[in-house]
Each structure stands twice: as structure tokens, then as C-alpha cells.
Amino acid sequence: MSFHSVKDYHALLVNGTVTCTDAVSFYIQNIKDNRHLNAFLEVYEVEALEQAALLDAKRQSGKPIGKLHGVIVGLKDVISYKGHALSAGSHILENFQAVYNATVVERLLAEDAIIIGRQNCDEFAMGSSNENSAFGPVLNAADNSRVPGGSSGGSAVAVQADLCMVSLGSDTGGSVRQPADFCGIVGLKPSYGRVSRYGLIAYGSSFDQIGIFAKNISDAALVLEIISGKDEYDSTVVDAHFHYTNENSTDETYRIGYFPATFDHPSLDGEIARQQKDFISHLQKSGITVFPIDFDLLDYIVPAYYILTTAEASSNLSRYDGIKYGVNQPAKEIDDQINLTRSKFFGKEVQRRIMLGTFVLSEGYYDAYVTQAQRVRNILLKKVQSVFSDVDAIIFPVSPTTAFRIGEKNNDPVEMFLADIYTVFANLTGIPAVSIPLFKHSDGMPFGVQVMASHLNELSLLTLSEKLLSINRAKE
Ligand code: GLN
Questions:
Q1: Is residue 277 annotated as a catalytic residue, yes or no?
Q2: What's the mean pLDDT in 46-55?
């Protein structure tokens, strides 16, 4: 039993071939058979089966069913699900339970989704390999010696290895798109302001967005339709409805831009660059307008991202003081308690970023770092405005390499940071971006390309991506 899409699954439910209970049992068994991947920190087996039985009864009694009826969803361990543990992959929150539902969770449940468990991730969503989780690394299901990417590694592997149908992750600088790329699935980061962040543990609040992992574009689009939209608990959410229909999409004409600087960058693996460039030529031959656009800021974007996000993180993470949340290391003096708790229960990478952020925000350094990084961000925003007055979409690589080996980059934080070169652009500018699986590398690992559109233009982003996937399939 494996379901190609929510649509197929619903057809099988309606004609009685399967039940939600069958589906939950199938995924629970798969999770048990794949424990070694370490994708889930917790599985809600009993609850999910109970929910499935309720949904089966509801459907069989002829009551109208929700748009995500019986759809089995996993949640990255940074999204609040009331009454369930929420740890952000960190020891500091090990005993913490969510006291309310994230808006996305409320909306999933209102459409009859079944939440199957809490997924492993890099601590506080900081990382690109899932090796920064306090609860051990996640293994890539395509090759267990390789990382799944990060920070939403567990959520990506869960979809890759058929442990759930779709997952929700978070993407501050690529944490949905890069692991999706490393695992050969679809990873969507919506526009900033498309999805409520209420109930998402904050990392860099002006960058964070909840994103979606799925096996295909239409499932990702359907989940986006449900979780997006205005929310009284997050004033940054835009009042705009998203509805996906790809009818007639093949007739549409698109203008696509690419920055040659991205495909010619020395960090990009030669074989990845070659296959992506061949794909661009193939698109051009298929009658799609794809043309180069000058871009000379590539080497500024990773530094700008790490300055601004660590600055925001140092402030966001100040709430974990051993008093208000989670565990603590008791001491006589309050200052000692805070120091001891944070030193003992935050991992190394989180401590590094808090210190970096505190440093760039400090008097005497603020202008040299934060103000400069904000300038870069503003220039990028202007660039995006001018580019999208001419094109419908931009194509980028997703990551300079395919999934690397566990431990390979762990000793060099700067090298790990630099590998975010292609994903942080969309977060700095707030535009929507999706990574789509297209190719296989000679090392056996999957990879694809990243497609970006203008702010709130997920509809053309996803219809075009669907089209690119089908052009690639036809080519094979
Ligand atoms: N790899 C990036 C980082 O470590 C992305 C993180 C994210 O998107 N949450 O900051």
C-alpha cells in the first residue's frame, strides 16, 4: 500500500478500497520498520488510530468530509500541538508540553487530518544536516551513511521513506527546500506572510515560514491552501486566499530568468551544474523563454543572512532562561541559574549563534554588521522587484552538493554555513520558493532545482513547477 497523492487516497477511501485505519496502520508499521532512520521523536500511535476510526465512521455515515480527510501528517518538533511534547530538538525543552495549538495545527485538524507524530530536527532549527539535534542524527533513507539535510531532516525523511503522507517543517534559510532536495521530494517555502507563525518556535522571526514536504506539487498546494491565510494571532500574515488549480496550466507561457553567477559558482558540484544547465537548454528548446540575468551579490547573501538571523535568534532565545520554560540547573543566585541552565542544556551550535548574534548587536559593532546586512537585504529586495517586473520565475540550484556523509562537514561551521548560498535568498527577500526533484547524481543521490516567484505568487510558482516536472518526465 502506497498512496501517490491525497487525491488518489481519497478516491480509494470513497470507493471503499481502503480505510483511514488501514492507512494509519500502514504508516505506523513503516515507522516501526524504519526506527533506525530516527525521523520521529515521538509517534502518536494510539491517538492516530482513534482519530482514524472516528473519521472512518464519519465518512461511512455519509457526513461531508474535510479536504484533508484522513491525510497522515507529521510535524517538525518546532510546531505546537496542544498537550504534546515540544522540544525544538533541544535538551533545554525536554520536559516541555505545548499549551496551545499552532494555527497550522488547528487548520489541519479542522479539515480532518491525522497527526502521526513529532519529527526530529536540528536544535532550534539551526543547521543543514540534522546533526545538531540533541536526540541524534537522522539518516537519509536513500543512503544511510548520508545526512538528510536540515534543519527539518526528520520531516523530509518521513515523506521520503513513506512514514507519513506530508510533513510540515520550517524554513528560515532553506530548512525545507534543502532537505527535500537531499531526499528527492518536493519542499515548499511559502512567501513570508502567507502562513501564520503562531505556535512556531521562533528562530529568526523576519525570515521564518512554515513549509511543506510532499511527494508531489498538488499535495503541497492542497496543504498550503488549508494552512495559509489571515490569522488574528500573527499580524504579519497577509489577507490573501490561496487556491490551487492547475487546469490549463500547460497552455500558459512563462518567462523564466536565471542568474549565471549561481550556476557558475565555484562551490557548485560540476555534475549538478552540468545537469541543471542541460535542463535549462532543454527548456529553451521546448519553447520556454529562459534567459540570463546579471547578479553580482551572490557572495554577500550568506553573511547577510547569518548576521541578521543570529541577531534575531539571540533575542528570540533569551526566553529559555531556566525559569519560564523547560528544564533548569538550580543555583542560589538567579544569574547563576540562568548561566548554568543555558550552558548545560543548549547545544554547541545554538550557543555559537547566540554569541554571534549578541556580538553583532553590541554597541560599536552594530553598524559594521547589522546595518550593513540590512543594506544588503534592501538591495536584494530592490533587485527582486526589478527582476520580477520582467520574469514570472527564477531558477536556482538548491544546494552546492547532494546529501553529504554524516560527519563530513561537522567540524567546519563556516563551510556548513556557506552551503546555504542558494536557499537564503528567498528568505532574505520573502519570496516563495520550491525545490523540485528532477535528477539523479552519479553518486546515487537525488537532486533538483529551485524555482522562485514574486511575493504571494505561489500559484504561478506551483503551476510552473508542475510543468517543469512533466517536461523532465517526458524527456526521460
Ligand atoms: N541551514 C540554515 C541555518 O542553519 C537554515 C536553517 C533553517 O532554515 N531553519 O540557518
A1: no
A2: 98
